[in-house]
Description:
The chain is an alpha+beta fold. Helix content is 45%, strand content 14%. It has one domain (4-63). The longest helix has 19 residues, at 26-44.
Amino acid sequence: MIGLHDLHPEYITDQRGEKKSVILPISEFEELIEDIEDLAAVAERREEPTTSHQDLIAELKEDGSI
Length: 66
């Protein structure tokens, strides 16, 4: 996950010097979008039931996956 210290923004300012927009390198922008998509997926699945590690291993063995 990208942190604020990892960004290298450039700012577009108005005539008074107030920041109005930001320019990011495309790689940083794409990483931010990926992080947002990952967080959205986690939020959407928050209410789903969980499976313990032990139960998962047992299920995988039963299916012949391991």
